[in-house]
## 1
Amino acid sequence: MPLEGHVEGRYSRAMATNPLGVHSFVWVGGWDREQCESAVASTVEAGYDLVEISGMNPAAIDIEHTRGRLEESGLGATVTLGLPVSADINSSDAEAIERGRAILMGALDVTSGIGADFLGGVIYSALHKYDAPATDATRRNSAAVIREVAQEARGRGVRIGLEFVNRYESNLLNTVQQTLDYIDLVGEDNVFVHADVYHMNIEERNFRDPLLACGDRLGYVHIGESNRGYLGTGTIDFDEVFGALVESGYDGAITFESFSSLVVDDALAVALCVWRNLWDDNMDLAKRARAFMLERLPAS
Ligand code: MN
């Protein structure tokens, strides 16, 4: 007889403990008070444990208001962003690096201020199609800023996540191995890999080997389909993805990410090339995504 809660032949753990999240761009294109209230309510209605908030414009976020809505709802939160070209710390432009440092410190203020403990995304580089490779100099400049942010974050109990992305969105970190090497360069123990299977699907040989290679340095996971729409409508092997997450013992957050021209932040839509409409009903999308992920995690 199989153990209670054990899914025959697939998983070694009896229960999934991963908090499940949804990116706020499934609901809203920004984070003013009204958008915050709408996104929090929708995230709760769809059954998720946390909402991922875009920190691209930290000055526009009312920290106290967001903290209050999160506490009322019992919802967790994370903050992610991609740096703009004008604030690229993966560069040799001292003014841009300083602007990037300021954005990251502002996003850290938002993260700790709203009661969250994770700041991730493309924070080590611009979210941008570069026209030349990264250099040792730009990599070191980036790592120096991330080291400073991580040191400040440690005192606030915040973990830093580096989301490696496909070659069209950064020239610095495109794979798990590059990210692990960069984390070694940074040298701070609160810096983790932020993996996104949409990007892995483009750059890695498979999902299992790189996910297992992260070990306990896997800190956050984005689940997205190859077309960034409904899970199960593209080419990603989610049985392999979730099998590897379970095999690795990963117990951190798993957040669904999907983008459509129906709900966009203008700057991010351009950076991510969100040109077409992948869905109309975001509640249906989010509920189906949660069910899809739960089906592939050990029964709780
Ligand atoms: Mn992502």
## 2
Amino acid sequence: SSSPPRRDFISVTLSPEEAVGAGGYNNSKAWRRRSCWRKWKQLSRLQRSVILFLFAFLAVCGVISYASMGEPWKSLTNKSLDDQRTEPEIPGLKLANPVVLPAPQKADANLGDYPELSPQKLPKLLHARRGPSNLQIKPPRRDVRLKTQHDTGRVVEEPVQADKEEKTEKSVISWRGAVIEPDQSTEPPSNKIKEPEKPSSVEAEDQKEPVPINERQLAVIEAFRHAWKGYKDFAWGHDELKPLSKSYSEWFGLGLTLIDALDTMWILGLKEEFEEARKWVAIDLVFDKNVDVNLFESTIRILGGLLSTYHLSGDSLFLEKAKDIGNRLMPAFKTPSKIPYSDVNIGRGTAHPPRWTSDSTVAEVTSIQLEFRELSRLTGDEKFQKAVDEVMKHVHTLSGKNDGLVPMFINTNSGQFTHLGVYTLGARADSYYEYLLKQWIQGGKKENELLEDYMRAIEGVKKHLLQRSQPKKLTFVGELAHGHFSAKMDHLVCFLPGTLALGAHNGLSADHMKLAEALIETCYQMYAQVETGLSPEIVHFNLHAQKGQKDVEIKPADRHNLLRPETVESLFYMYRFTGDKKYQDWGWEILQNFNKYTRVPTGGYTSINNVQNPSNPEPRDKMESFFLGETLKYMFLLFSDDIDLINLDKYVFNTEAHPLPIWVPA
Ligand code: DMJ
């Protein structure tokens, strides 16, 4: 135990003599060096090793921490340099000036009538990508800059927010390049984007530089939003808005206006509205209801609307709903003649004709084909197409036509035309002619019987129904009743110039285009010659010149306007195919008159009773679903200079303005 205690610590003792020395406190360098060295020598080997190890360890730590602090330090120093920099370092390279948006412009004088109308109020749209040029959604391009034309005609570039695009890539559903959040409550996200079961024949195109939305298109968007506001506030989920009584009316109880408007919102770029409506479709649109629906109306508005929205958005929800309603409409075809009944109970699966007759309307049974054929193509289930093709084949063989013109009724038992001898291109026959051409186009121009019937019918129109009015010599389409010509023309007939132009564009006779040009002038005059600048439901043309008389005569029972689309529809085709700006100008006049006489301040537009009384057009308190489904959509397309905004070589519009793909596009 006399051995010294083991030291596992270092003790350095400085004696007072050593510290101060003989000469007292000596702080000379030589003395300190000598003294340290002596101390070091006095240490045991273990003590020295420990000290050396500690020094080495500290040195290594120092090197590591220097390396990791280097980068932030560097950037910190650079940043502070940048912050201080006022002049570019490279001579001649100037830093960009901050973006200066143009000062708010005064709206067009015409726009000034409507206080809500101002591009500044539509900020979200400035970021909306322009119209779908393809059928399938694609992830947005990272570097896309959107151009917005202000009323100066100046184009302002607005950078798309990078974080927005980042989000898009992660999202389940894409809004033409923007985002729609997945609706968790309906189906798993993985089911949301699905290629059509039978992929569409239309190839996805490379996204082109977007065409700017112009002032007139903005006015259409504003009108749509105003109409939608009324619908949302007072009629959400119901068939039609009653904008004056701030309520709604039901026809089928299936949210008709909402469904009809879906693809319009898509085309106009109204992302939020679309998203909200989609949620309603996902959660609240239920077809399992004990309700009678009209086969034709529910096909063109609901089935057609769902199919086109499916194509534009790629969202399988709409295809699922389309299949559901398509299946529920099929009982209509269970008739002795296979000519469908007019009405179907979609909950019970039963069908029947109207109470007073066993006839169906010819236009109705022959204007459901585009939709059912497309449904077969998408589902691979041929029953839909078979049912409607059979109707067309049967009608093709029927007697009772007059040079291709068909009567207005057909019997569901016998399959024969009834009420023979009356021919019109208006109510009850109109879309028969339209669908002959459009089915031929949809199917890739191969179904010759359809083309034959169409060509024959147009010859029939020329031979029996065309006349010229006085004093302006307007070419119009009248009616024939048991050999007697009547100078009566429904506004509905104004689909014809557009259809004729579409046929000519698809290679049919150039004469058709000539006739289209003459007829669209007439349809425009049906607006221009009336006090409110809005067309009545029916006009009678003067065949004999009389002093002080216009071409257009209106009977008291016919002077209502239901916000119908046909003239605007034809203006759209005419502008697309000719590029003549007068068609846009005519459409612009019509839009302004709708705004002047049919707009309800609290939201929505209304049909009116008297187009001849500008001081009291007598609002009817109803906004038809086709105002959003057709009229405003065609307006928007008419004012666009982008032929890829529903390219007419790739899409064919159904009679409710819902675009469906052409199977073999031009
Ligand atoms: C719409 O339902 C369709 O355009 C139909 O073909 C005719 N009637 C209305 C619009 O006027």
